[in-house]
Design a protein that fits this description.
single chain; alpha+beta; Lysozyme; 3-stranded antiparallel sheet
Length: 176
């Protein structure tokens, strides 16, 4: 992502998320982690790795993703829905997890503001603990709310730790 596009995204994030009470830096840190420091944005404006819901009628982008599963009961629903899209599955002995690589449909938006509005709505609908903590000065509770509940934003057990570490780097002067 070039600096102009990143600046445009940050300006849009401030305009769309701040009125909803979001800690902007927390939301930007999540986008930073999900996109590999803004280098791998899915499609035009999917900064969070949001997969296309079953009823999605908007733009989609097929993308190879890596998902982590720590037991078979959590793997089974994924395979029921996406089994035909799986390219490989291996067992990571060191981290004691099943690593699945699959080509999945990800949602995309033509405008960054539409993506940000969808993101905010998704957090509100499916991640109530994150929504409740979205405005804290320290976004740790927001990050935890993304994985502690009925739905988990990421399948990696280290997701919250990764987000917090990136947040701490930001506050030590390393820019997003």
């Amino acid at each position: 992502m070039n600096d102009a596009k990143r600046g445009q995204y940050i300006a849009a994030a401030i305009q769309e998320l701040q009125p909803l009470g979001f800690n902007i830096i927390g939301a930007l840190v999540q986008a930073d982690v999900e996109t590999g420091r803004f280098r791998k944005i899915v499609g035009w404006n999917n900064y969070w790795g949001i997969k296309a819901p079953r009823n999605w009628t908007g733009k989609t982008v097929k993308c190879l993703t890596e998902e982590h599963f720590y037991d078979l009961p959590t793997l089974a629903p994924f395979l029921n829905r996406h089994g035909k899209d799986v390219e490989s599955a291996t067992y990571d002995e060191k981290k004691k997890r099943i690593v699945v690589k699959a080509n999945l449909d990800f949602a995309d938006w033509y405008r960054d503001r539409l993506a940000l509005q969808w993101y905010a709505g998704l957090v509100k609908r499916l991640y109530p603990n994150a929504w409740a903590a979205r405005g804290g000065a320290d976004p740790t509770k927001f990050f935890e709310g993304l994985v502690n509940g009925k739905y988990q934003w990421a399948t990696d057990r280290d997701y919250v730790k990764t987000l917090v570490e990136r947040w701490e780097l930001y506050y030590k002067g390393k820019p997003l």
